[in-house]
Amino acid sequence: MTVGGLRSFVARRLLLGAAQTVAVVLLVFALTEALPGDAAVALAGDQPDPARIAAIREAMHLDRPWYERLGDWAAGLPQGDFGTSLTSGRPVGQYIADGFGPTLLLAALTLALLVPAGFGLGVLAARHEGRLVDRLVSSVTLAVYAVPEFALGVLLVTVLALKLAWLPPTAVGYGTDLLAHPAALVLPVLVLLSRPVCSLSRLVRAGMVDALASPYAAHARRYGVPGARVRYTHALPNALAPAAQQLARTVDWLLCGVIVVEALFVIPGLGTVLLNAVAERDVPVVQGLAVVFGVLTVVLNLGADVVAHRLTPRAAVAA
Amino acid sequence: MTDTKSLRRHTGRLSLGLAIVAVPLLLALLGPLFAGDPGPRAVSFTLGGGHWLGTDFVGRDVWGQVLLGGRTVVLTALAATALAYLVALPVGLVSALTHLRRLEDVLMRPLDVLLAVPSLLLILLVASVFSPGAAGLALLVALVNVPDAARIVRAAAGEVAARPAVEALRMQGETWWRIAVGHVGRSILRTLAADAGIRLTGVLYLVSTAAFLGVGVAPDASDWAVMVDRNRTGLFVQPWAVVVPALLIVALTTGTNLLFDAVLEKKGRRP
User: Fold this and answer.
1) Do A200 and A185 form a contact (C-beta atoms < 8 A)?
2) Burial grade of A6 (CB within 10 A; 0-12, 13-18, 19 or more)
3) In sequence order, what are the beta bridge partners of B48?
4) pLDDT values of chain B reduced to their tens digit, one per residue, 271 residues
5) In this structure, are residues A53 and A30 in contact, taking their beta carbons and an 8 Å threshold?
6) B249, B225 contact by CB (below 8 A)
7) pLDDT value at A319 more than 50
8) What does the mean pLDDT of chain A come to?
9) B149 to each of A165, B55, B209, how far by Cα in Å?
C-alpha cells in the first residue's frame, strides 16, 4: 500500500464528509421551507393568536427571503449561534449546553463498556466454536440484537426495579449530576449496550473463526506458537477491521438509543431536549440539535472509514 | 459435527423462530377480528372487574387493546420494507448495468449523502414540522432505508453484471429489460432475500420505536408501542398494560430475526 493511495482515499473520503455536512445543513434548513402555507401560522398550531404568529415570524425572520435566512443561519453555526427558541426565547446554544453533560456521560460509559464486552463475548464464542458456550452466546446475541430499546428497557425496569427493587426505575430527582448516583445509570447503560454489544460480538466472532481456520494460524500452531498468542496477536487483529467499522455504525444506533433511553428513564439530556422541542414544534431548537447530531455522525463515520481503510488496505471501502 | 446432528439443530432453530414469531404475528393479523366491541370505559389502571389483563390509562380493556394493537406495527413495517425496495431495486439495477459513469453518479451519490443522516433523527425532524400518519411513517421509514438497500442491490448486481454471461446476452442483442430482470435480477435474489430479512428486522425496530416516541400515531392509538409508552405511568399499579405489549414486540422482532437467520442458512452459505 503506497502512501499516495491512502492519501487519495482520505482526500476522497474527506470530500464526501464535507458534502454530507453541507447536505445535513441544507436538509435541516429545507424543513421550514417545506411547511405548507405560511410557516408561522403552521408552527403556531393549536394557539393561532395573531401575537404568537407575529412573534414566530419575528424570531425566525420569516419576512426575509429564504436565501438570506439560510446564509445567516449557516454563518452562525460554526460560531455556535443556532438561533433562539420559539417557546422560551432562550438561545438554542444554551439548550444544547444544558443537555450535553448527561448525554455525553451516557455515550462515554456505553462506549467504554461496549468495546471490552463486545470483544470479550466474540472471542469467547470463537474459542468454543460449535460448542455449548458458542451456541448460547450466538443465539442470545442474535435474539437481543433485534429488540427495540424501549421494550427491553421497560421489561428490565419491571423486573429489576419494581419486582426486585434493586435499582431505581428512573433518574427523576437526580438532575444532571448523574455520576453522583451510579445506581440510576445501571439500567440506562445496560439498555443502551444491548444492541451494539450483540452486533459487535457477532462480527468479532465471525472474524476470529475465519482467522483461526486460516493457513497462517495453522502454520503458527505447527511452529509451536502458544494458543493464546495465536489467538490474540495473529487472529484478533484480522477481526478488527470489520469491527472498527461496525463501531462507527453503532453511532447511529447509540443516537437512536440515547433518545429512547433518555425518554424512558427521564434523563435530562439532548434526547429529551430534542423530543420536547419536537412536541412543541420549536423548530429552531430541533434544527440546532439535528445539525449537531448530523455533523457528529458524519465526522465519526469518516474517522471509522479511515481507520478501517488503514487496517485493511486491500478491502475496498466505499467512498 | 455429523450431518444429521447439524440438520436437527437447524430444524430446531427454525421451529424456535417460527414459534416465537407466530404468537405476535397471529395476534396482530387476526386479533382485530376477535376484538369485538370496545365496551364502556372503566376506571383507569385497575385489575380484575371482568378485565382479564386489567384496564389501561384511560380505562380501556387491556386485552382488547392488545388484540387491536399489533396490526399497525406489522402492516407499517411490511409496507415500508416493500416501498424501500420499490425504489432501491430500479436505482441499484440501473446504476449497476449502465455504462454511463455520470448516470451512476447522479443516481448513487445523493444516496451516499443521505446515508449520513441518522435514521431516527430524520424521522423526528420531519415529525416536528408535519404530523405524519401511519402512511407517512411508512414512507419515512422506507426513505431512510433506500440508500442502504440501493447500495446492496448495486453491489450484488454489479458483480453479476461483470460476468461473461451478461456480455454474451448483450452481444446477442437481448433487450435491457431481459438482461436486467431476467438474468441479473434473478441471480441476486438470494442476496436480496438475506438483506430483506435484516431490513425487515430493522424496519420493525424503527416503526415501533417511532410509535413509542409518538411519531405517526395518535396519543391514544391502539398500538403495542403506544401502549407501552402511555401505560408506563401506571407501571406500579398495573404492570400488565405495559409488560404484555412489550413482550409481544420483543417476540415479534426477535422471532423475525431468528426465523430469517435460520431460513437463510439453509438456503445459502453452508451446504
Assistant:
1) no
2) middle
3) B51
4) 456 777 777 787 788 888 888 888 888 888 777 777 666 677 766 776 667 777 776 777 778 788 888 888 889 999 999 999 999 888 888 887 777 777 777 777 777 777 777 788 888 888 877 777 888 889 889 988 888 888 888 888 878 877 888 888 888 888 878 888 778 888 888 888 888 888 898 899 889 898 888 887 877 778 888 888 888 887 777 788 888 888 999 999 888 888 888 887 755 444 3
5) no
6) yes
7) no
8) 78
9) 44, 42, 21
pLDDT at B271: 33
Of B116, B120, B258, the CB nearest to A301: B116
Q: Where are the alpha helices (DSSP H) in chain A?
A: 3-33, 39-44, 50-59, 66-76, 92-127, 132-145, 149-156, 182-212, 215-222, 227-229, 236-265, 270-280, 283-311
For this complex, say whether ipTM is above 0.85: no
Which grid coordinates are listed for A266?
427521564
CA-closest candidate to residue A6, choices A226, A309, A250, A210: A309
Q: What is the pLDDT of residue A318?
A: 42
CB-based contact, A20 to chain B, within 8 Å: yes
Q: How confident is the model at residue B131, as a pLDDT?
A: 75
Domains along chain B? 2-268 (1.10.3720.10)
Considering only the C-alpha atoms of chain A, give the largest distance between any 2 of them, rounded to a whole number of Å: 84
Tell me which amino acid residue B2 is.
T
Span of A40-44, A230-234, A269-273 with lowest mean pLDDT: A40-44
Distance separating alpha carbons of residues B232 and B217, to the nearest angstrom = 17
User: B124, A154: Cβ pair inside 8 Å?
Assistant: no
CB burial of residue A19 (10 Å; 0-12, 13-18, 19+): middle
Q: Are B224 and B70 in contact, with CB atoms under 8 Å apart?
A: yes
Put simply, whether A75 touches B (Cβ < 8 Å) is no
Q: What is the DSSP letter of A91?
A: B
**Distance in angstroms (rounded) separating the CA atoms of residues B263 and A220:** 37
Go through the domains of chain A in sequence order and give each one's CATH number.
95-282 (1.10.3720.10)
Nearest-by-CA chain B residue for A284: B128
Cβ distance B129 to A19 less than 8 Å, yes or no, reads no
Cell digits for B149?
438497500
Chain A residue with the nearest C-alpha to that of B198: A146
**Among all residues of chain B, which has the CA nearest to that of A42?**
B129
CA distance A81 to A315: 41
